[in-house]
Amino acid sequence: MKIAIRLDDITPGMDWKKFERFRELLDSYDVQPLIGVVPDCRDPKLDIDPPREDFWEYIHALEDSGWVIAMHGCHHLYTTSEGGLFPLNRKSEFAGLSYEEQLALLRHGREIFTAKGIRTDLFMAPSHSYDLNTLRALKETGFHRITDGFGSSPYQWEGMIFYPISFDKNRAVRMEKSDPARATGMHRASPAYAPDAAVTIVTHTNVMSDGEFGFFERLLKNNTENVISYREMLKMPAKPASRADRLKEYWMAAGKRMIVSGLAKLHAGA
Predict the structure, then answer these.
(1) Most exposed among 104, 125, 229, 236, judged by the fewest C-beta atoms under 10 Å?
(2) Tally of CB atoms within 10 A around 42
């Protein structure tokens, strides 16, 4: 199974020390990831360092070196408690809003990207939450690919191409040589399964611990043939997803949310 890497929450005021540390690690193995850039960040939790004045020039330089850019929402502000079609979380910038409201957000983000010379048709929803109105609005604003979902290869649904993320990054790494279907949570009989399986591991450099840096260093060192740059992921063919695939994906996301929430409550009470 091939493994690509995705970085969320790329903003002018992110934790630049951690980002640069991770960039140096990726560069040492010649791996170019997908990055989710917030067009107009208004989320105070993402303001860690003073805003970098040459931010957009820096993003262009990353793109020129092979990094792939997705638009990561618009303001990165959670306005609803909806999980949407992929309920890993119960918060969203988009899911639950009207089509017109979502279209306005996406147009605003697109206008900023255009003004800054950034062209992409890839979308990354904050907290992974989107609904059918999101997909309609995305297509209206020129987005046709989204980095989300569970599966073992890219798939097509509702006129969009989805590039799956890992259900469990540790299991994905452990199982990738023996059974890629188990690693991604999908069964071999699923139409979304392919012999040349691929999945994306998600991370947020702002909150990465030394342990997480160690995880990625081991991943890159021990899987040099299997960790790929995201541009290779985008070249993979996408198969149609069935209603059963989507239903399974929904319940996997909801189940993971409940498990994570339960563990958090357990630790809080310890």
Answers:
(1) 104
(2) 12
Mutual angle of helices 132-140 and 99-115, in 10-degree steps: 40
Task: Judge contact between 4 and 196, C-beta under 8 A.
Answer: no
* Cα–Cα distance, 27 to 133 (Å, whole number): 38
User: How is residue 202 annotated by DSSP?
Assistant: E
> Is 29:253 a contact under the CB 8 Å cutoff?
no
Give residue-wise pLDDT tens across range 121-144. 999 999 999 999 999 999 999 999
Distances (CA, A) of 98 to 9, 71, 94, 242: 24, 20, 9, 26
- Tell me the C-alpha distance between 145 and 162, whole Å: 6
**From CA 80, how far away is CA 97, in angstroms rounded?**
8
With a cut of 70, say whether residue 266 has pLDDT above it.
no
pLDDT digits (tens, 9 = 90+) for 57-108: 999 999 999 999 999 999 999 999 999 999 999 999 999 999 999 999 999 9
Cα–Cα distances in Å, from 122 out to 68, 169, 174, 237? Answer: 9, 22, 29, 16
What is the distance between the alpha carbons of residues 112 and 110, in angstroms, rounded to a whole number?
A: 5
Q: Which domains does the chain have, with CATH numbers?
A: 2-269 (3.20.20.370)
User: At 160, which helix (H) or strand (E)?
Assistant: strand 160-162
Contact 247, 73 (CB under 8 A): no
Residue for token pair 């695939």:
245
Whole-angstrom distance, CA of residue 32 vs CA of residue 134: 28
End-to-end Cα distance, the chain: 38
Relative to beta strand 68-72, strand 145-146 is: unpaired
